[in-house]
Amino acid sequence: MVKSGALVLLISAMLMLSTSCGRTPSPEPALRTPDEFFPSDVGALWQFAGWGNEYAPFTRETTHLSGDRLQIQDQTGGTTLGLVLRVTNDEATIVYRIEEHYSRESLLDRPENTSVTLLKSPLRTGQSWQTDGSERIVLQIGLEIVVRAGLFTDVMQIKVTRPDSDWIMYEYYAPGVGLIRRDNVAGEYVVISELESYALEHPTR
C-alpha cells in the first residue's frame, strides 16, 4: 500500500509539472514613463469632485509650457496653487511652488524652490523613492478604475507615506490623462478627490 501511494503521488507531481511547463506565462504590462501621465497641451483642464474638506474639490489647468517645464494651476476652495514641473522620460518633479497665485503669469523661469518627485522611472510594481521627506511607491500597475469621468485602463497606483504623519495618500494616474483620483486616509478619516470631467485640448483649437 505504501508503494502504491508513493506511485500515485509521483504520477500526480509529473502531471502537474507537465501542465505548468505547457502554460504560456502572462506577459507583464509594458512599463510606462512619467511623461505619459502629464499631458502637455496648454489649456488642458481637469475638474475634480471632492469629499472630506474644502481642498478636496479642485480645478487643474495647464497654463504654460516650455521644453521640459510644465506649469499647472490648482484652484481649490481655499487657495490657488501655482506649480512648475520638470517632466521627462525619467521623472516628473515639482521644482517650483507658490500659493495664492491668482494671476496667469508664467512661473517657468523662476528659480527652483522645491523638489518633489511625483513619478520616477522605472514605473514597475514595488519601485520606490524618497522625496521631500516622504516615500513614494508604485503599488500596482495595469488597473481598471472607474471614477465620475468614466472608466480608465492601465492605471497606476502610487502610495505616499511620511514617517512623521499618520496620513497615507493613494494617487491613481491614467496614461494620457494624468491624475484621476487621490485618497488621503488617516484611520477612519478619508479625503477624496476624483476626476469629474476633463478636456485635454484648448477649447479654441
Account of the 3D structure:
By secondary structure, the chain is mostly beta strands. The protein has one domain (34-199): YmcC-like fold, CATH 2.40.360. It is 10% helix and 50% strand. The chain is built from one helix and twelve strands; from the N terminus they run H-E-E-E-E-E-E-E-E-E-E-E-E. The protein has a twelve-stranded antiparallel beta sheet, with no helix packed on it. A hairpin with a 2-residue loop joins strand 11 and strand 12. The chain is globular. The N and C termini lie far apart (81 Å). Residues 1-26 have low confidence and may be disordered.
State the shape: globular
| CATH top level class name | Mainly Beta
CATH architecture: Beta Barrel
Alpha-carbon distance between the two ends: 81 Å
Secondary structural class: mainly beta
Radius of gyration: 22 Å
Q: H/E element string?
A: HEEEEEEEEEEEE
Q: Provide the β-strand percentage band.
A: over 45%
Main sheet summary = 12 strands, antiparallel
Mean pLDDT equals 88
Number of domains: 1
Indicate the low-confidence ranges by residue numbers.
1-26
Number of helices: 1
DSSP helix fraction: under 10%
Number of DSSP-assigned strands: 12
Strand order of the largest sheet: 6-5-4-3-2-1-12-11-10-9-8-7
CATH fold-level name:
YmcC-like fold
Short description:
The chain is mostly beta strands.
What is the secondary structure topology, with strand pairs?
Blueprint: H1 2-21, E1 45-51, E2 58-66, E3 69-76, E4 80-87, E5 91-98, E6 116-120, E7 128-131, E8 134-147, E9 150-161, E10 168-174, E11 178-186, E12 189-199
Antiparallel strand pairs: 1-2, 1-12, 2-3, 3-4, 4-5, 5-6, 7-8, 8-9, 9-10, 10-11, 11-12
